[in-house]
Design brief:
single chain
């Protein structure tokens, strides 16, 4: 087994495909924060007019929260050392 093979055996999935999970996650989280802020602003503008817009915004924010959990799980997966690469 060569040194290159040994290094590959200890490398994370992210290292093997050449990405930085923390950087990727930070970008996604910044975008999600911006989207949440915009959705809250839209909902607030309709608060006294139509509560269904506010409620729809809350549903959307909950979906974004679930999406962020999925991103976090993917980052964890990328940081794992695969058994059989």
């Amino acid at each position: 087994m060569t040194a290159s093979d040994q290094t590959k055996m200890l490398a994370t999935r992210a290292e093997l495909i050449g990405i930085k999970p923390k950087v990727l996650a930070a970008r996604v989280k910044r975008r999600l924060k911006s989207i949440r802020s915009q959705v809250e602003g839209i909902g607030a503008a309709f608060e006294d007019i139509d509560m269904t817009v506010l409620e729809g915004g809350r549903d959307l924010i909950e979906a974004l929260d679930e999406y962020e959990k999925t991103v976090n799980e993917s980052v964890s997966w990328l940081n794992e050392v695969p058994e059989n690469w």
